[in-house]
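Workshop exercise sheet. Pairs work together: one partner reads the sequence aloud, the other fills in the structure field after running the prediction. Swap roles for the next sheet.
Pair: D.N. / O.F.
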Amino acid sequence: MKIYYHLDDFSRLPFAVVTSGTFDGVHLGHQRILTRLKEVAQKYGGETVVITFWPHPRLVLYPDDNSLRLLNTFEEKAELIKEQGIQHLVRIPFTREFSNLSSVEFITKILVETIGTKKLVIGYDHRFGHNREGSFEELKLNGPRYGFDVEEIPRQDVDHVAVSSTKIRHALEQGDIVTANQLLGKPYLLTGRVIKGDKIGRLIGFPTANLEIDSHHKLIPADGIYAVTVLHGNMKFGGMLYIGYRPTIGGSHKSIEVNIFNFDSDIYGETLTLHIHTLIRMDTRFNDLDDLRKQLEHDKQEALRILKIK
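Structure field:
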C-alpha cells in the first residue's frame, strides 16, 4: 500500500475506486466498506483509494474540547488499512482552511481532479464538505456530471451489530476489552516507545518495559492488568500489561508497562505494539510488595491460560 501525506504527491489514477472518512479503529463497519471497495475495484479493474483526515477533524474544529480519545494513531490506522488489502491511502492534513472547503469543491478538486474517482463507495449517513453540507443525495446528483458513480453501503450492512467508534471507546473506558475487540474485529492496539522506569518490577521478579504512547489523544483502556501479545520486530511474545497509578507504592502518575514472558533484552528506545486480549483484573492497592508479587504470580498464570501459552 502506498501512503500519500499530501495531495500533491498523488498521481491521478485512470480508474480510482474511492472511499473517505476518519476510519478511527478500522472496526467491523469500516471493514465492510473496505471489502466492498475491493469488490468494486476487482469488478471494474480499478485501484482502491482510501482518503482519510489527520488530525481528527474534531481536534481542529473544537480545540478546547479535550474529551476526544482516538482508537488509533495514524500509523496504527495505516497499518490496519494496509491489512485490509487497500492499494492507496491518502492522508489529507485537516486544517481550518480545509474545513471551509465546500462539498462541490471537495468533489471537483479532490475526488475528480486529483484522485480520478470513477466509483465512490461510502457508508450510510456520510457527510462531507463545509459544515458537513454534502450528502449521499448530493453525490448521486453530481456524480454523473463529473464522471463517477456513487454507492452507499446500507445501514443494516455497516451497522449490523451497532458498531461505532463511540461504542468501542466506551467499552475500553470500562475495561470491557471483550466487547471492544468484538466490535473492532481484532484485539485493541497500543503502540509505544520503551522508556526507562524505576525498575520496581524487576525487584519483585516481574521486570517490565515502560511505554510512552505515541499520541496523547490515544485512548488508554481502564486501569488494570491485561493479557496481551507483544510484537517486537518480527517476533511475538505473550505478556501482561499494567495500566494505572501503582497505588501499592504511592505512584503519582499513570504508568503503562508490560511484563513480556520469556524475554530478556535491552529494548530502551525501541517500539512495541501490544494486542490487548482480556482484562484479568482491575487495579488494586496491596499491603506491601510481597502481596503484590503473589498476586502477579496468579495474574501471570491467568494470562498464560488466556493466551494458551504452556
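Discussion prompt: The first strand starts at residue 2 and ends at 4. What would you look at next?
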